[in-house]
């Protein structure tokens, strides 16, 4: 079979079959199309203003490394006029974060961006290794999620930056939409689809420029751009429910490649139908697993590892070897509008425990919070009660 030509330039050999629409593209066209799509997301959502200082939440993983690379490329190509900085959180996980931070340090040199690292040990007096030693692996992601969110905010504050971009991709958003759908939590579902979050629960704005980018394409982009990233998953087990949602989405994607974007768009449509716009409610959960890279179940971790292994064996001359096989058909059946289920009071209370909040300051750490004691300080207090008597 003769090698397929790129559908875009009709000149070069296609080396990528796009997971979301099966378009066969050469390396240059794939990189260009990927970058153009992120540019379109940025422009259509008016994410930045000229001269804005923006911190890129950088974990060393594929998502944030691709984000940093694309942000640098687009900032130069389209004259966004942004002042870009890498901001990393050191959770204190030996054999995982210490290694991935080395990657971020190299990225800082490669992309000529300043790097700021904020550590859980300095901020909270606890590393995640110590947290897990104390409470066990179960539920550790809750601690990590709350700590990370505040750590990124505090890091941004130290840099006097008011906008943090994170590497959340379409798969992450689809997972969160599905999780909230399964929980029956439409208000949180609607918040999770926003490209910009955190505006009212914090004075640091958060946004997700890779919101519409497929995880598989991010892996392909990193490979074809030869980016330096760290591909080991967090050694502590991810939130079980998210793992389940993730597996479900990966299975859906096998029979319907557009499923991921369909779920994201359905989430956006549902957000428009949801009257409850409790913007002040905690958005921590909406942020997903954040810097865990992608919290994955074993099954899906293997899938991405296989893709990465396959890519590393591939050479650029082999046509379509990076093709991702899916056996489904993409059909365009009309979107079905879901009725909004009236909530029972009890459910409402469970889903949005703090409906009417006014933003004040945590009496412990002075950080912005809608409660007297912020979530991070509450967790630290719980940990301190359990701190082993004998300390090294
Ligand atoms: Zn081409
Ligand atoms: Zn606090």
UniProtKB/TrEMBL annotation:
Pfam entry (one): zn-ribbon_14
Xref: InterPro entries: CTU1-like_ATP-bd, CTU1_C, Ncs6/Tuc1/Ctu1, Rossmann-like_a/b/a_fold, TilS/TtcA_N, tRNA_thiolation_TtcA_Ctu1
EC number: 2.7.7.-
Origin superkingdom: Eukaryota
Enzyme class: transferase
Domain tRNA(Ile)-lysidine/2-thiocytidine synthase N-terminal: 54-233
Gene Ontology CC: cytosolic tRNA wobble base thiouridylase complex; mitochondrion
Stored HAMAP family: CTU1
UniProt-recorded name of the protein: Cytoplasmic tRNA 2-thiolation protein 1
Native organism: [Torrubiella] hemipterigena
